[in-house]
Amino acid sequence: MNLIMDAWIPVLHRSGKTSRIAPWEVTGFPEDPPLALRFVRPDYNGSMMQFLIGLFQTLFMPDDDDAWQRLLEEPPDIEKVKNRFSEMTHAFRLDGDVPRFMQAYETFGPCNHEPIGSILIESPGAQTLAQNRDLFVKRDLVPKMCLHCAAAALFTLQCNAPSGGRGHLTSIRGGGPLTTLLLGETLWESIWFNILARNTLLDATGNWDLSTEVDIFPWLAPTRSREVNAKFEATTPLDVNPLQMYWNLPRRIHLTLESESCDSCAVCGGQVKGVCTGFDTRPNGVNYSGAWSHPLTPYYRSASGETLPVHPHPGGIGYCHWVGLVVSSEDASRIPARVIRHHLENRADSLALPNKLRVWAFGFDMDNAKARCWYESTMPLIHVPRAQSERYVAWAQKMVGMADLAARSLLNRTRTAWNVKSGGPLDSLGSVTSQFWADTEPDFFAGLELLARDIEKKDACEISLRSWHAILVRAALRVFDEVVLSEPIEHGDPARVSRARIWLWRDLHNKSMNKYLGIATDEGGLA
Predict the structure, then answer these.
(1) Which residues of 251-267 are buried (b: 16+ CB within 10 A; e: fewer)?
(2) 132, 256, 371, 391: least buried by Cβ within 10 Å?
(3) DSSP secondary structure of 120-165
């Protein structure tokens, strides 16, 4: 099976039908173009979008943004794409002789053999199985995979590789990184909006002087591993081409493939020729070290000054993360992914429909080797002219800051109302702020659109902030009432609840909130 020439990518077409296409066909079907991927697992959809972006970034990279825009407006002919991709078919064979896609080039000596289900990131680890603690995700649920699902699972693992014990290394972005992509109206647009021109990537982390295939696709030669060669202790940006960021190989794996037909793939239920039943693995894959900066991931600056990739955390992804995912924070401690920054700073003004894009953020919330949850979210990418962007971002950041103050006040006063220290309903507290953020999200993006439209009008920003403040007050009080008053009265203290609600109202009009609104306050905090 060849992953760039065979038709194995499931897609949804504009007409509503689904089909499987080869990667070189994404620019085909002009009358009924593919709109999105349709793998059965959401993590496969996210990872395989990165696979397609990596393919076009590597094999079809435009020289500059003018060339990029021409191909956006008039996609390349599928025969041209097919011919270019055919030059690299040897790097994308899943089975057969080495090299095999995303699998170690060298043969293994003694190694661990794992069932194929263990390649899924949420699968229970060896320690969990030994202690018989696989309570929610059971062992042996996936005895076989079709080659399509096995290929997607392999790439997903290498992209997101969590810590897996001694020598089982994380991905180039750490375990379970957050990925943020731009989404267009078709699959081609969603791929191409995330492609950077050669002149933009020149200052990316990596060494452009190293330009052989091996410097880009690490499985085409013996692994840069200390187990293979003692000099390969670590792989820094000086050691390989920048494009290897799209094709990192932290795990050394050999898939166990069989030629029998798959009567029932345990993942997708499909029937195709060939199955994968397991894999051999050895520790010490490529140990990526140093200041890598992946184009598809946002970063943050730690207290020690390091720039580190963002990872999802409990609670999901919403507009509370808008600062850092779409725009940089005021102190530049949160930095959006390079593709998003470059689009807003260099491309958006020249597009005919700059506001048709969305940001798709997704990733695993990992606790070391344990996957706690998969999170994903989409949000609009609202564009303002470059001349007004700094002012727009400053006011939008105020909106997020106001919402954060309101959410924290809501949580604190809910604790007060329930007298948590005396053993109140602790299990419900996590949902209080989640409900508040969810309830106010549509109004936030509607407010951003109004702000973008009226950014040049006098007093428009102040009016938008006051309207947003009123929305936050109503939402916080409504959530407080719904959550706190839902408790049986015999479990509560009506006087304490009443006081907590009054304090919440005061919090929502205190000195900190009024500072955002530009209202002078007295020492007591009330206007």
Answers:
(1) bbbbbebeeeebeebbb
(2) 132
(3) STTS--HHHHHTT--SSS-TTS-S-EEHHHHHHHHHHHHHH----S
For the chain, report the end-to-end CA distance as a whole number of angstroms: 69
Strand partners, 373: 365
Is 229 within 8 Å of 108 (Cβ atoms)? no
Closest CA to 195 of 61, 75, 80: 61
User: What residues pair up with 365 in beta bridges, in sequence order?
Assistant: 373
Tell me the C-alpha distance between 361 and 341, whole Å.
Answer: 15
Q: What fold is seen in the domain 385-527?
A: Topoisomerase I; Chain A, domain 4 (1.10.132)
pLDDT, mean of each 10-residue run, the chain (527 residues): 96 97 95 96 97 98 96 94 97 95 94 93 64 45 92 97 86 96 96 96 93 97 93 94 97 90 83 88 94 96 91 90 88 91 91 80 91 93 86 91 95 85 51 92 94 83 92 96 75 83 96 86 43
Q: Nearest Cα to 166, choosing from 6, 290, 281?
A: 281
What is the number of residues in the chain?
527
Note whether 190 and 37 are within 8 A (CB). no
Delimit the domains of the chain by residue range: 9-282, 385-527
Annotate 447-493 with three-state secondary structure. Answer: HHHHHHHCCCCCCHHHHHHHHHHHHHHHHHHHHHHHHHCCCCHHHCC
> Hey, is 180 helix, strand or coil?
strand
Q: Which residues pair with 374 in a beta bridge?
A: 364
What is the DSSP track for 365-427? EEETTEEEEEEEEEEE-----HHHHHHHHHHHHHHHHHHHHHHHHHHHHHHHHHTGGG---GG
